[in-house]
Specification:
2 domains, elongated, alpha+beta, 22% strand, 356 residues, 7 helices, 18 strands, six-stranded mixed sheet, four-stranded antiparallel sheet, Rossmann fold
Length: 356
């Protein structure tokens, strides 16, 4: 079976998938396939088994070996409002308790798919007084894989009363500086959650309404290529919605809803839904292969039990494609295959062979 139009190692498109060295492989006559049933694919520890073997003119049978396709886990900085207004009620809980439960929900659902880190603004060790209630200098839990337990160990519990002001500018700047220390080839993002307008200006020792946070978020996106997803907690009916919309638009990842650019979290359910929405948006559909498939023309991919065809690029419909300039060691899921994968569907890949 020959798949039409695959990416070459140089990013150009040919009539067929290419080998790992960029050479197009010849089409195969499926009538040469053995009458025996095709080898089956199994999974071990999350990795798909690729059944890879000799060509039809070889003497030996197909040889199987395991390869684990690994999704690229984005580096995500949680930047959480630790101001005293988080003590206010939201339903039958405090805003802080609602936020804590939403963070726990995020970790429970996506810790394995994201490299997470967390910081509070202002810093965790501040107190509510005139000298330090705006200070934000620490990224409390550095971004790392499978980091949920460490984040919850540092994050004050749901019964805690945050004491500080709202130094949003300093929060996103500290987060961006931390993300810049990480591999730029891996997607990076800030999840900013706040329940009020910024009340600390550029001088962290001064309580002052800061109307320029959107400009800072915009610079982080346009100059450093780090988007910010802005989640407004209990913002409905407040006076700072306009600035939240400006921040959401400047961050490069606005809510696609027609009436606002930030992601609303006006109660427990909607805050968790906002987290789910931004997580699904940030998860990548690019998967690394330990080695290139020996015969790309016979390489097959399925998501949630549905087999998808090769497409030259993701602009041409549902399916999968090799990522250009990776020597066939990365694949990208496209369209509905990507949507299903982001929602947690299983992924399998198989290298068929012509068994002699």
């Amino acid at each position: 079976m020959t798949l039409p139009g695959a990416s070459t190692g140089t990013g150009t498109s040919t009539g067929e998938p290419t080998t790992g060295d960029g050479t197009a492989t010849a089409g195969e006559d499926t009538s040469a396939v053995s009458s025996e049933p095709p080898p089956t694919s199994t999974t071990t520890g999350g990795g798909a088994k690729f059944d890879v073997g000799a060509r039809a003119d070889a003497a030996g049978p197909c040889e199987e070996f395991d390869v684990t396709p690994m999704p690229q886990r984005p580096n995500v900085a949680l930047v959480l409002d630790y101001s005293s207004s988080m003590q206010q009620s939201l339903g039958d809980k405090t805003r802080w308790a609602v936020l804590w439960e939403a963070v726990d929900f995020l970790i429970d659902g996506w810790d394995a798919q994201l490299n997470l880190g967390m910081m509070l603004f202002p810093d965790l060790d501040i107190s509510m007084n005139a000298t330090n209630s705006c200070v934000t200098e620490d990224f409390e839990v550095p971004v790392a894989p499978m980091n949920g337990a460490d984040i919850l160990a540092v994050l004050p519990g749901p019964d805690h009363d945050p004491p500080g002001n709202t130094p949003t500018r300093a929060g996103v700047l500290v987060a961006a500086a931390h993300l810049e220390t990480l591999d730029p080839a891996i997607p990076r993002a800030i999840f900013l959650v706040t329940d009020g307008d910024a009340l600390c200006g550029p001088d962290q020792w001064e309580e002052l309404t800061d109307e320029g946070v959107d400009e800072v978020i915009g610079e982080i996106y346009t100059q450093r290529n780090i988007p910010t997803y802005v989640i407004g907690l209990a913002a409905q009916g407040s006076s700072f919605i306009a600035h939240l919309n400006e921040m959401g638009l400047a961050g490069g990842r606005p809510d696609p809803a027609a009436d606002h650019d930030y992601y609303p979290g006006d109660d427990q359910a909607s805050l968790q839904a906002a987290f789910e929405q931004v997580v699904i948006d940030v998860i990548t559909c690019t998967l690394d292969l330990e080695e290139a498939p020996p015969d790309p023309t016979l390489f097959k991919v399925s998501v949630d039990g549905v087999e998808y065809t090769f497409v030259p690029d993701c602009g041409q419909g549902d399916g999968w494609t090799f990522v250009p300039d990776t020597m066939n060691q990365q694949i990208e899921l496209c369209g509905v295959a990507c949507t299903a994968f982001k929602a947690g569907a299983s992924f399998h890949a198989k290298q068929y062979c012509l068994n002699g």
